Each structure stands twice: as structure tokens, then as C-alpha cells.
């Protein structure tokens, strides 16, 4: 399945080409055009001695098994295709897929804790459940929160990981990944790349050793599949495979099939949605109803903005845009982070990380920009129904906006 088997690894290919062909190079030789979906949970074997030797090999090394699969909790051919493709897109040696993004993060923390290291340095804001998993110590971890400039000072001898999300959820704050990786020294840097995807940035090329995705979002792209994936070096991937086998957080084969299919259109979807998002940012930045717009320098399809009025009125007022959690789908979604995605984070921590009560987060889809703007602008003019509007600043206040990125 790997490109090396077909003499393709030495030929550099554009990301769009890799997105279409990675994980599929062997199909023509199999007489197939579409990747097969293998739903088997178990596989027959008439040589128990050989099977025992292969299982011992996995238990010892965590390497993928040569030959046919044994059991779905250990490996699956359809999921393996998705893993190979995602690793190629991220420029990593390997990738390991899980049932969700949170299962993936959990496996990373367990893998590092298995080496006796439990201290994590993390940069806020993070996705609310990631924040909670670290801060609540549910896995026995201890976390030190800091900004990017304070990472070096926060490191300890028992630090196992530095975690950052860039662009961050939900403020879209960006970190200099290369500088951050340098600050980490020998401690692995994990970058949650869910918002950017490898279309906009490849953290491995900037020094990150672990890249995390909630594959539920842009990688799947259609709001109909849940999964998580970690891109990393092969050594760490072997530990992750062993943890996945032991804990059972496996990705279902149908999800692997849908995620592989989603990768084939990932560059087209991200670039089209990003173009629409940039135009919406331009309009929001001059709208007197908007206090501030957040938009990353690298672009993307995620927008965050703070309103002068009641954000709940906006949520209640949209008709074409869907008020819902999650992101990265072909349709546009909007949500109020302080009420939903980051509700689990303590109020003081939310606000200190820039997640204000007036902040709205929008995942721009593939609809026409004029239709989206019409729906958004009428929602922004919805009749006041909440209590926040009374505290709005005087009309003389002007919106402060992030600059529109060049070339996007």
C-alpha cells in the first residue's frame, strides 16, 4: 500500500495530488478503483503458532503486523489506508487513528505517562474538553498553564508534553510553532492542527513531534463521521498502537472509509471555505454591530467575532446557518463557546484565555457568500431578547479587526 512499494516515494507530489492518491496506490494492482471497506471483526488463521509469534511481535514492538489482520481491535486494513494517507499529508512517518479526537489525546497522555512522566505544559485556549481533560487530572496528569513565551520556564524534569492548539479554539489565536518547538527542548510538542489542517500548515515541518486532529471536523468534512488521529514518528506510533489495542479506542472501519474519502476533497473544501470566510471577515470588520473580529494570519474557514449586542440573539436569529457544535462541515455552523464548547472550562479561565461572553465562533462552509452574509446580517439585527445588550458600549465605539491575510 505504501508509495515506496510502487517507486513513488522519490517523486514529490503536490498536496492536492497526495490527498487524492495517498493510501490508494495499490488499488489498480488489485483490480479496484475505490478503496475496499473491510468490516470484519476477526480473521481466520489455521497456523496458531505463527499467529502467536505475530501477536508476541506486536506486544513487544507495537509495529503493524505483516500479513493478514488478526482482530479488529488490533488493526484494520481500511483504517490503515486512512492512517497512511494522513501521515503523508502531514509529512509524518506514521499516523494512528482513534474513535474520536479525545480518545486520541487520551492515548497520547497515557503513552507519555507510561514512561513515568505526568507533567504537561499547556497553552490556553484549547478546545474545552481538552482543557478539562488536562485540568481535572482525570488521567493523573498535572498541568501548568502558560502562554507561548512562558513555556521554557514552565518545563520541569518530569514534563512529558507541551500542548498547543494553533489556530486555537475558539479565539483563533496563533502560536509560532517553530519557536515553540525550540522552547520545548527535548520535550515533545503536540500541536492540535484541527482548525488549520495540513492544507494550511504542517506542524511537523516546523518542529512539532506530535500532530493531533479531531478527524470529525475537516478531515471527514461532512458532519457524518467521528474520529481522531495522531501523526508522529514510527517509534511513538508503536506505543500508541499498543495503547489503542489495550484500551479499545479504535476507529470503526466505516469511519476510516469515510475519512479516507474525505481526505480526497480536503484541499478543495478548505480553500473554497477559506475564501468565503475571508470575505465575511472583511465585511464583519467594518460592521458597526461587531466589536472585534478574530481571524488567523494563515487564513482558514473559522471565524470568531464579538458582538456589541446579545450573542444569544444572533444564535436564535440565523436561518440558513446552523446553530450547532462542531465545525469543518460543508455547511456553515455557528455557536456560542461560553455556553457550549467551553462551558466546561472555569469561567475565570475562559475569560483570561480571551473567550468572552460575547464571542461567537463560526465554521464557514461551502454556501454562496452572499447567502451567508444575508443570513448573518439579519441575525445580527435580530430584536433584543437577552440581558447582555443593555451593557453594550456606546455607539461611538469602533470595531477592532484582525487584518485580512495577504493572498487569501
UniProtKB/TrEMBL annotation:
Residues 387-399 have a biased composition (Low complexity). Residues 387-408 are annotated as: Disordered. Its EC number is 4.4.1.2. Keywords: Lyase, Pyridoxal phosphate. It is an enzyme of class 4 (lyase). GO terms for cellular component: cytoplasm. It catalyses: L-methionine + H2O = methanethiol + 2-oxobutanoate + NH4(+); L-homocysteine + H2O = 2-oxobutanoate + hydrogen sulfide + NH4(+) + H(+). The modification N6-(pyridoxal phosphate)lysine is found at residue 217. Belongs to the trans-sulfuration enzymes family. This is homocysteine desulfhydrase.
Amino acid at each position: 500500500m505504501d508509495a515506496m512499494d510502487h517507486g513513488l516515494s522519490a517523486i514529490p507530489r503536490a498536496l492536492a495530488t497526495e490527498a487524492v492518491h495517498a493510501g490508494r496506490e495499490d488499488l489498480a494492482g488489485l483490480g479496484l478503483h475505490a478503496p475496499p471497506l473491510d468490516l470484519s471483526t476477526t480473521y481466520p488463521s489455521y497456523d496458531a503458532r505463527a499467529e502467536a509469534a505475530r501477536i508476541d511481535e506486536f506486544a513487544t514492538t507495537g509495529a503493524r503486523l505483516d500479513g493478514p489482520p488478526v482482530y479488529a481491535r488490533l488493526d484494520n486494513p481500511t483504517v490503515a489506508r486512512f492512517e497512511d494517507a494522513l501521515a503523508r499529508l502531514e509529512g509524518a512517518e506514521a499516523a494512528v487513528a482513534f474513535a474520536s479526537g479525545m480518545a486520541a489525546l487520551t492515548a497520547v497522555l497515557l503513552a507519555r505517562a507510561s514512561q513515568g512522566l505526568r507533567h504537561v505544559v499547556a497553552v490556553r485556549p484549547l478546545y474545552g474538553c481538552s482543557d478539562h481533560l488536562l485540568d481535572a487530572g482525570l488521567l493523573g496528569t498535572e498541568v501548568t498553564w502558560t502562554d507561548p513565551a512562558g513555556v521554557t520556564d514552565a518545563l520541569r524534569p518530569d514534563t512529558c508534553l507541551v500542548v498547543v492548539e494553533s489556530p486555537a479554539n475558539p479565539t483563533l489565536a496563533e502560536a509560532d510553532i517553530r519557536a515553540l518547538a525550540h522552547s520545548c527542548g527535548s520535550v515533545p510538542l503536540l500541536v492540535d492542527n484541527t482548525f488549520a489542517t495540513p492544507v494550511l500548515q504542517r506542524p511537523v515541518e516546523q518542529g512539532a513531534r506530535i500532530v493531533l486532529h479531531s478527524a470529525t471536523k475537516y478531515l471527514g468534512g461532512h458532519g457524518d463521521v467521528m474520529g481522531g488521529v495522531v501523526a508522529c514518528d514510527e517509534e511513538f506510533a508503536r506505543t500508541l498502537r499498543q495503547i489503542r489495542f489495550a484500551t479499545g479506542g479504535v476507529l470503526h472501519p466505516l469511519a476510516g472509509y469515510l475519512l479516507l474519502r474525505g481526505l480526497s476533497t480536503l484541499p478543495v473544501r478548505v480553500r473554497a471555505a477559506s475564501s468565503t470566510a475571508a470575505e465575511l471577515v472583511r465585511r464583519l470588520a467594518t460592521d458597526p454591530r461587531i466589536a472585534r473580529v478574530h481571524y488567523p494570519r494563515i487564513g482558514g474557514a473559522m471565524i470568531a467575532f464579538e458582538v456589541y449586542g446579545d450573542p444569544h440573539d444572533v444564535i436564535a436569529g440565523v436561518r440558513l446557518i446552523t446553530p450547532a457544535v462542531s465545525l469543518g462541515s460543508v455547511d456553515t455552523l455557528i455557536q456560542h463557546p461560553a455556553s457550549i464548547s467551553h462551558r466546561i472550562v472555569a469561567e475565570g479561565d475562559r475569560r483570561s484565555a480571551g473567550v468572552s461572553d460575547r464571542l461567537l465562533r463560526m465554521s464557514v462552509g461551502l454556501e454562496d457568500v452572499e447567502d451567508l452574509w444575508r443570513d448573518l446580517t439579519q441575525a445580527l439585527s435580530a430584536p433584543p431578547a437577552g440581558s447582555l445588550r443593555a451593557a453594550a458600549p456606546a455607539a461611538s465605539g469602533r470595531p477592532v479587526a484582525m487584518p485580512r491575510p495577504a493572498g487569501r
